[in-house]
User: What shape does this take?
Amino acid sequence: MRFALAGTPLSRRVRLWGGLTLFSYVLLHLSNHALGLISLGAMERGLTWALLLWRSPPGMVLLYTALITHLGLGLWALYRRRTLRMPAWEATQLVLGLAIPALLLSHIAGTRVTDALLGTTPSYARVLLFFWVFDPTAGVRQVCLLLIVWIHGCMGLHFWLRFRRWYPRVALAFFAVALLVPVLALLGFAAGAREAAALLARTPGLPRDLMRTPQPVTPAERARPGEIQRAMLATYGTALIGVLIARVARERLRRRRGMIRVSYPERRDVLVPLGWSVLEASRFGRVPHASACGGRGRCSTCRIRVLGDLRGLPAPSTAERRVLERVSAPPNVRLACQLRPAGDIAVVPLMPASLSAQAAALQVGARHGQEREIAVLFADLRGFTRLAEHRLPYDVVFFLNRYFEAVGTAVTDAGGIVNQFTGDGVMALFGVEKGAAAGCRQALVAAAAMVARVRELSQALGDELSAPLRIGIGIHSGPTVVGGMGYGQAFYLTAVGDTVHVAARLEALTKEYECELVISDAVAMRAGVPTTELARHELTLRNRQAPLTVLVVDSAERLAGRLAGASDTVSASP
Ligand code: FES
Assistant: This one.
């Protein structure tokens, strides 16, 4: 049964529910700390209520099951990772998660284990005096633990919820709570500790009272919690080292079983052991690749088009199929994080490597349509009909695929989304995620890259062409309705509205003005690019009352060069 292993939806769900239980525990614990801002007595009363919940038999079973499964499945997920190359947020989450048990075990030994073995009464005053007066170094460690646990939990929650359509609306409030809770907890901790220290000054016998046990205990019994703490730490350390050693051993074995080649556009090949996913290969080979959910098979941003024969590919799992259906992907589109090819494979990542969770959510949930101000780009290859004449159909398809690869990469590298290829035409959207101003800058960068790549393609084809390839591009920016549209397998993210028609019209004008690029003045203004040297025309367009000012650009590359911070807008140059 595949679902019994980590990396499958069931294990992920168990890990998630374990994490949520632990998060609830931590939230209550920190709220209890915050009661120190009222008084030490309020902290103690809060503790009594918390213990009623967490030290009741069901509470203990829930808490310890959550702790053990979350930790165990976390280690298992670490073992299953084929590569430790990962985005910074994932690495942070992982390192914080691994640090928690090491710091937490001493706290558990000093509280829960001590109370259970020696019969001491749980007390805030005892713990606060220990951290504040008797061992401030341990106190600093405790504060670090508190922050690490909280950040780890908030990151987990954020990465779980960020694909929800409602999440962007509450994200700011979530962030405010995430900031406020530890600050109040630390202030409460300090206030309670100061009160306990003042109590100690008035009552020198306080520590003895707080450590009072129902029966006398021998020194050996008193040392027992410390021994258990060391044993737990050694067990965790051994498990962690064991996982790392097992990873190395597994990879050696896999390498012996064989390697596969994953080929990307622009002749980039990555050799990885059999059994790796395409996303793991991308990360290993440092190929920019979107993966907003971190390879958990939830966001669909890692999707790839598989080139060539599909028959040798393993069938998608139910979970992968569900995500692919959600974005109406055709059969040659797969999730790179889920696909583990059994042989060499050629793929094209379909989303810009920098695609964020918000854009992913928009793409996944875009069926309903949203009004957005974006930039729309149309491009068309000059004289394609003439070029296609007297050529075999196979040659035409080969040529078009190279052309689409060149211009498609230029679009995605600049941060745009290729919307559709029709004939020799391309439509692309920019600013779906970051807004119109960023979209206009990205579109100008993409236009320059398209011109450059078409020139390179032209040079590569050399004698096969009667004349160098040329491209005409039109860009306009304005309101559109962006959404997933179409039917069945032809369902994809697109934009409709007057802005789209105007952009197409501007592209057609490049023939009339014999230039590379025509942009509307809205694009120039939003991009903040100087336009004094550009020729201007006033156009009257159908369905528009006001005339439209357009700018004629002879060199898209020169214009993009004038763009302030143009390099920042290119997100994923190979
Ligand atoms: S990385 Fe999110 S589905 Fe693959």
